[in-house]
């Protein structure tokens, strides 16, 4: 890995931004199309990198990484001409002769810090949002997914303009050095604890940030739900990428009766998904590194395993594991699991579920499985979370017209679709006054000497 120092890289990007090159909408479109081409022409290499990093299977890599980015590019290309146009807001009688409009100014030099769990999608989606908005961008992929990081560092310069977009590889020392530079916007995806480091560094330059963080995303299931369908959708959300998904269902809140039904159907569903020997299934992933592997296993302490509980350190394999009789004080309920453990905590009513959810930090996602609209509305009205998906998990992320982001401990700001564009622009309000005689007559009340007569205007 040979790269110049952060100061030089940022200066280069700042000079390119000052040249105005990235502000041209046609230039942005060309770059976005080049990024789509990069994905199209190198799909096998991307799949190979994702397999190396996370043992992701081909289909999951295509659906949950490559296609997500391609769809985002398509959506942006469809709308970019509309979004970049100056907006004409309403105006009052006092400005009848004037123009009032909003310009969508790119911020300048944007730093995007990617995460390792969806190392392609979580690096490229904010990256392309910043491009669409007309910025120059420094992308730092996660060092914890080195194969994907290397791929991005090698291939982005082959397809995109290197004066405007740079990839910077590295871990904590490199990120620390980058954060000393002045950026015009920082977009970070990762843990809440590192989120605080980013926010502190950004504060030194008053740099605005988006923080896409994590948290324990709860699932509430009541007895009106179809438990088999609910279990299928929850286990899919939990087991994808071995639970290393920021919006993975973290734990379940339900009655004992629902828990019994859930456990009964879950065994069969897991066999349907992965066969009798889950470890040998090509559809099931691995934990990213030893640190996370040991951390997840340590969360099992004191919990009653109803399904799974198997692991193999040599492969960083942990089987899908359902835990029952879990108490709020158990280790598994103290932090975001970010692995394939699914604890079930018993609650007797929707009110108890709401109280439980509100006793914890605000989650990134909240899932409700119910056919009782009144109870669903009750939860929606009385809890706070980044987003909500009723009767499914994770799927709210791919609705392009919805903002995706956290609140409180799960983050600040949002992106996807138009929200990505909005994230990376400053909305500059412009009042363009008329200089003529009538315009001046309408303005005269503001000049001294102030008289009661003028106050009538
Ligand atoms: P992390 O937050 O510990 O590390 C992320 C990056 O931060 C690394 O690349 C590392 O180099 C850098 N870093 C770590 N310590 C640093 C320091 N002191 N100074 C500067 N940089 C530092 O990653 P993690 O905890 O393994 O990530 C998992 C978390 O990310 C989970 O909480 C998950 O929910 C969250 N996440 C959120 C989203 C989202 O979209 N909201 C997506 C993926 C992951």
TrEMBL record:
Keywords: Membrane, NAD, Oxidoreductase, Transmembrane, Transmembrane helix. The keyword Translocase does not apply. GO terms for cellular component: cytoplasm. SUPFAM superfamilies: ALDH-like. GO terms for biological process: aldehyde metabolic process. It comes from the Eukaryota. The active site is at residues 212, 246. Residues 8-428 form the Aldehyde dehydrogenase domain. It holds the Pfam family Aldedh. CDD domains: ALDH_F3AB. PANTHER family: ALDEHYDE DEHYDROGENASE, ALDEHYDE DEHYDROGENASE TYPE III, ISOFORM Q. Belongs to the aldehyde dehydrogenase family. This is Aldehyde dehydrogenase. It comes from Psylliodes chrysocephalus.
């Amino acid at each position: 890995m040979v790269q110049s120092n952060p100061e030089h890289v940022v200066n280069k990007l700042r000079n390119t931004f000052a040249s105005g090159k990235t502000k041209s909408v046609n230039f942005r479109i060309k770059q976005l199309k080049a990024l789509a081409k990069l994905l199209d022409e190198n799909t096998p290499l991307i799949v190979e990198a994702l397999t190396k990093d996370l043992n992701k299977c081909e289909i999951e890599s295509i659906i949950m990484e490559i296609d997500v980015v391609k769809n985002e590019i398509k959506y942006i290309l469809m709308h970019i001409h509309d979004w970049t146009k100056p907006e004409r807001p309403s105006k009052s009688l006092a400005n009848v002769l004037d123009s009032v409009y909003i310009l969508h100014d790119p911020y300048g030099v944007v730093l995007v810090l990617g995460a390792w769990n969806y190392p392609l999608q979580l690096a490229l989606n904010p990256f392309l949002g910043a491009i669409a908005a007309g910025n120059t961008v420094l992308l730092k992929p996660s060092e914890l997914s080195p194969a994907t990081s290397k791929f991005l560092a090698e291939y982005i310069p082959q397809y995109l303009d290197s004066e405007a977009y740079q990839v910077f590889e590295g871990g904590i020392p490199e990120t620390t050095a980058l954060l000393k530079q002045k950026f015009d916007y920082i977009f970070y995806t990762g843990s809440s604890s590192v989120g605080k480091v980013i926010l502190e560094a950004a504060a030194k330059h008053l740099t605005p940030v988006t923080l896409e963080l994590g948290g324990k995303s709860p699932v509430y299931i009541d007895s009106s739900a179809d438990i088999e369908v609910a279990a299928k959708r929850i286990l899919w959300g939990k087991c994808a990428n071995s639970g290393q998904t920021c919006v993975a269902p973290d734990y379940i809140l339900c009655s004992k009766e629902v828990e019994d039904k859930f456990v009964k159907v879950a065994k069969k569903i897991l066999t349907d998904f992965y066969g009798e020997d889950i470890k040998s299934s090509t559809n099931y992933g691995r934990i990213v590194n030893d640190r996370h592997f040991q951390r997840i296993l340590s969360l099992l302490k004191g919990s009653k395993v109803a399904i799974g509980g198997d692991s193999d350190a040599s492969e960083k394999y942990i089987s899908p594991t359902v835990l029952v009789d879990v108490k709020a004080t158990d280790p598994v309920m103290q932090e975001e699991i970010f692995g394939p453990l699914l604890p079930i905590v018993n609650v007797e009513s929707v009110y108890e579920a709401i109280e439980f959810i509100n006793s914890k930090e605000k989650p990134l996602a909240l899932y409700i499985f119910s056919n009782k609209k009144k109870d669903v509305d009750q939860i929606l009205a009385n809890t706070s979370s980044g987003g909500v998906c009723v009767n499914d998990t994770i799927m709210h992320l791919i609705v392009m017209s919805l903002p995706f982001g956290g609140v409180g401990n799960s983050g600040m700001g949002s992106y996807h679709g138009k929200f990505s564009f909005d994230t990376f622009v400053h909305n500059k309000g412009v009042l363009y006054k008329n200089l003529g005689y009538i315009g001046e007559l309408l303005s005269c009340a503001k000049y001294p000497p102030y008289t009661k007569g003028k106050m009538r205007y």
